[in-house]
Each structure stands twice: as C-alpha cells, then as structure tokens.
User: Which sequence fits this backbone?
C-alpha cells in the first residue's frame, strides 16, 4: 500500500498492491528449491531476478527456466543482459551445455 500525501488517500488504484522484485527473491528461491525437489515437471523460477547471478541461483536451485519481470521496468533490456551474463558465466566455468 502507498498513500498519496497530496491527495491524502491511497495512491494505488486498487488501494493495495502486490509485492514483487528483489524483496521476494529469498522466498521465491526457497520455493523453487522445494518444489523442484518434489515434482517431476519443469519449474520456472521467478521473483526478484534482476541479474545473471540471480537467474543462475534459480537454475542451481532446480529451475528449468527463469522469468524476468519487474527488472524490465527499470531496464527494458534486462532479459537480454541476464541471458548474456548466463552465457559469460557458463563460458568462464567451462560449462558447455545445460
């Protein structure tokens, strides 16, 4: 929730909003780890992924793929930057394929 001080009322159209971005990453990462260990279907990791390191953490936790959301508002190229960063990490670590 946010209060617009000028209007002296809630600043969001629906009064309340959701929580997204880096604030939820630790919980999202934990949930991917738990779920990926419990199911035999692909798991898509999302929640607070803003860097290649974030995405790699989700993959290491068991995600088959990752989703970039909130980071795209600040950087429309976020997904491409993250993809390039994953490639650089794999090359540095000698990982040929995933």
Assistant:
């Amino acid at each position: 929730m946010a209060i617009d001080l000028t209007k002296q009322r809630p600043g969001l159209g629906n009064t309340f909003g959701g929580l997204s971005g880096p604030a939820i990453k630790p919980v999202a990462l934990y949930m991917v780890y738990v779920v990926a260990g419990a199911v035999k279907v692909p798991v898509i990791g999302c929640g607070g992924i803003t860097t290649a390191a974030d995405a790699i953490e989700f993959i290491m936790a068991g995600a088959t793929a990752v989703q970039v959301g909130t980071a795209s508002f600040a950087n429309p190229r976020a997904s491409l930057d993250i993809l390039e960063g994953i490639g650089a990490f794999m090359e540095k670590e000698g990982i040929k394929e995933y």
Observations:
- The chain has a mean pLDDT of 94.
- Strands lie at 3-4, 9-10, 44-46, 65-67.
- The chain is about 45% helix and 10% strand.
